[in-house]
Amino acid sequence: MLIQHGLHNALKRGELAIHYQPKYALDQGNIVGAEALLRWFSPELGTVSPAEFIPIAEETGFIVDIGCWLIERVCQTMNHWRKQGAVLAPVAINISPIQFHRGNLYKTLSRAIADHAIDPALIQIELTEGVVMNRQQSTIELLHSIKSLGVAISIDDFGTGYSSLSYLRHLPIDEIKIDRSFIMEITDAGSLTDTRLTAIPLAVIDLAKNLNIKLVAEGVETEVQSNFLRENGCFIIQGYWFSKPVDEAAMLGFWRRA
Ligand code: G
Ligand code: G
Ligand code: MN
Ligand code: NA
Fold this sequence. Notes:
By secondary structure, this protein is an alpha/beta fold. It is about 50% helix and about 20% strand.
């Protein structure tokens, strides 16, 4: 298979890059974090979307190697940014369920953090509901050990899994990210005529507030969405409206202005 074969070489040849998408606080008017996102620029295949190559890397298990590289690379980049005078905020790394269950995640994180002298409070991992929902002892222990490193845990794509909500009370979760499919439904026309479209974002805002968990709205693309979120008490947004994912150099520019 073309992608599968290409991926192995991609790591070796340095075709993988990491872009960063800022998280912006509407109330403070500054950047309060960023999410690391993989990019693959293949000479043979062109730009390949992670939506395409990550499922393949998960099937083959190669996602563990890619994930280790990414953690190491993010820490290295943060060290570089700091030396360039950046005032950093937490950087979030997406962790595949395969890496969570089969990779040596605790060791990979702790080593990268130590090697690059990163404040662990500046690292965050993003997991999907499917990962944290299962009640296996090994999952619970790994979450607690990652927390004990000082790394924060965020739930990505919140509201799209088949989750019971009880894990939010029992597990050391710091942040949830309302999935962009719910944010998309906030429109001038829609919200005025059909309050069912805003019911879920409003409920998640309440839930996060009452559980004292940080909340981020992802996929915010319009001023209408941004205003709606601010008026209803969700202040941290991520999405094309503030910024698309940008390369390392552009992200450094953001940090300097933060
Ligand atoms: O950046 P983009 O919208 O193209 O990403 C598509 C999908 O790939 C998203 O679901 C995103 O979470 C996932 N993704 C992007 N970067 C990473 C990564 O570094 N690790 C993992 N596991 N998934 C990623
Ligand atoms: O699954 P995850 O939430 O990690 O996916 C993040 C992906 O969403 C990134 O690949 C990023 O490119 C994409 N993304 C970020 N902001 C927006 C947005 O405002 N609109 C859309 N359509 N996609 C976005
Ligand atoms: Mn994410
Ligand atoms: Na998402």
